[in-house]
Design a protein that fits this description.
By secondary structure, this protein is α/β, with parallel strands linked by helices. Helix content is 33%, strand content 27%. Helix 3 crosses helix 4, helix 3 runs parallel beside helix 5 and helix 4 crosses helix 5. Bound molecules: adenosine-5'-triphosphate (ATP) and magnesium ion.
Length: 233
């Protein structure tokens, strides 16, 4: 694995972004496994869809890949580092490696869309003008240029979802994990978001998307069927 600056200035890597070996997860002590024997090799520069019906384990798998939750079986390696070796190492991996697009991502409702997106860039040490410029460009990419100055509280569900995608686009993280990022979008907006993810992958990121949306899956390099059957890529 080697690191190089990507097209958007992000540090991107070459090779395997995430590897899982015999990964499995069971909630509670006596429940049935949600996932078992998942063996994935997800590369930088590619988009993977996690595909399956409601309840099949897509969000669970995404949480395991992004180190939000420890697996009950098997192992996860991210950017060449074994996960869960210590709490400190895990926190560092979480904050340095992943940008998230979650269904109910927190935002500052009274602030504008551009402020909400710029916050993440400011947190990475950019100047205010740089952060606003990046945020404005990302909002344009997801088709929200005209709503940039609207307060988050005044945005529709789909517009908020695209604002969350714009926030992930601006973050300088090598791996982007998205959970149903187009769940509230029409076909045209879904295609816009999927194209933005494609561009991230082209710039060297590893993008993993849990989705039910054919528009998104069609643009992915790999579609992983999630469920209780073993998975190998
Ligand atoms: N915290 C939890 N405790 C117990 N069971 C859980 C928990 N989270 C999820 N589950 C169960 O694990 C299974 C997989 O859930 P998950 O949310 O991963 O599915 P999903 O494929 O993302 O579904 P959807 O498409 O509806 O979002 C479901 O049966 C769910 O009820
Ligand atoms: Mg889910």
């Amino acid at each position: 694995m080697s690191a190089h600056p990507g097209a958007h200035g992000a540090t991107c890597c070459v090779g395997l972004a995430i590897e899982t070996i015999a990964l499995g997860h069971t909630y509670g002590r006596s429940g049935a496994p949600v996932l078992c024997d998942v063996n994935l090799g997800l590369e930088f520069g590619r988009i993977t869809a996690l595909w399956g019906p409601s309840g099949s384990g897509k969000s669970t798998l995404l949480s395991l890949l992004g180190l939000l939750m420890a697996p009950t079986a098997g192992s996860v390696t991210v950017a060449g580092h074994s996960a869960w070796t210590s709490p400190r190492a895990t926190r560092r991996m979480r904050s340095s490696l992943f940008a998230w697009v979650l269904q109910n991502s927190a935002c500052l409702e009274a602030r504008t869309a551009v402020d909400n997106v710029a916050m993440g860039v400011l947190a990475e040490g950019a100047s205010r003008p740089d952060a606003v410029q990046k945020a404005t460009a990302a909002l344009q990419t997801v088709g929200l240029a005209e709503r940039a100055r609207s307060r988050a509280v005044d945005l529709s569900g789909g517009e908020l979802q695209r604002m969350t995608v714009a926030r992930a686009l601006t973050q300088n993280k090598p791996i982007v994990l998205a959970d149903e990022p187009t769940g509230q979008l029409d076909a045209s907006s879904s295609a816009t978001v999927a194209d933005a993810f494609r561009e991230l992958a082209r710039a060297g990121r590893c993008v993993v998307v849990a989705t039910h949306d054919y528009t998104v899956a069609d643009r992915c390099d790999l579609v992983v069927a999630v469920g209780t059957k073993p998975v190998k890529t």
